[in-house]
Amino acid sequence: MRVGENGFGVELREGSSGWRVVIVDASGAIVSERACRSHPEARTYASTVRQHIYWLSPERFREYYRL
Fold it and tell me: Within 13 Å, how many C-alpha atoms sit on residue 59's CB side?
């Protein structure tokens, strides 16, 4: 998993209950998690998070995702 310049990364994970998207910090700890109904929904949400990791400052990213 690649962590962005602002110290956060995003991963898609498939489990027995479906797909989820997790936001991790630089240490790899999960700081946010969202369940998704399908793989396309999870990919779309993860893509949005990746864009925010790239665009937003670490402070703004934390504020936006309530971290």
Answer: 0
